[in-house]
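Lecture 7 notes: from sequence to structure.

We start with a single chain of 329 residues. Read the sequence below before looking at the structure.
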Amino acid sequence: MSPLLDLLKDGYFHSGEALGQVLGVSRSAVWKQLQQLQADLGIEVYKVRGKGYRLADPLSPLSAKTLSASAPLGWEVSVMQSVDSTNAQALRAIAEGARMPLLVLAERQTAGRGRRGRPWVSPYAQNLYYSLALRIEGGMARLEGLSLVVGLAVVRALHAQGVSEARLKWPNDILVGDKKLAGILLELVGDPSDVCHVVMGIGINVNMRLNVDVDQPWTSVRLQRMSVVDRNELVYELNAQLQSHLERHALSGFVQLREEWESLHAWQGKTVILSAGLKAIEGKVLGIDGQGGLRLCVEGREQVFNGGELSLRLAGGSRPAAASDTSED
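Now the structure, written as tokens:
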């Protein structure tokens, strides 16, 4: 974070003269720096005669020092100011032989993405752009239901942060009511039958209040709590929940977590429409199976569906809330 932005992150007014004195530059230079920050990062700055400058919203910057010190034992942590995508950066690190587990975080993404390559809106220092890369041994059994396990950990972290209404939507969204709060994107490289690496990308709307680029109902942790969120505290909680749930999954498989996941499924027992390309199937949600597949009652018979290209919406509702329209991976 730039020194000027660090001075303004509290969201209060600061005079150009005072800012210039701290930075050792002229008031004119302060204004030029602010214009550059607005152009480079898309940050909105208010300028009021007699008061000075303030950000439209206070910022909660990520602290590389704090996050590295508080990460689970053995995790490598990389905090970046800007990156195309935290998932893409994690995949590059895997290719370069980086130590695992590796956590990649960023203040913003220039090409964040979700399922099916859809863009993920990533305003600077407002939300959480989080990718955890792991080495996986033991074949397909270690991968069954993994994306659902990650979703469960995200919901538990949000509950711990005061968003008790957060619920899961199969396969990889987190909702509050009918509004999207977070999404998950898993990417796999290597041999899934032997040794491979998986990147668990998580995007959470944290302090975002307004965004015209999002084309579906959404909310954020801040809007739910009515207060600015310390993103470092959220990362700490998410790390702890992921570590715990991944250990449970490795020990006993997804079957052990299945009942807990179903208890938090927003659309459990509801009639939905499952879409795969041009094909749409209507059925009642019965739950999930031991591998994380969606169980539907279709015309009186149970059917199980799996696959990354499927999307789900409530029958009679609007278009599917695909896991990629509001933030990063």
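The two ends are 22 Å apart (CA to CA). Keep this in mind for problem set 3.
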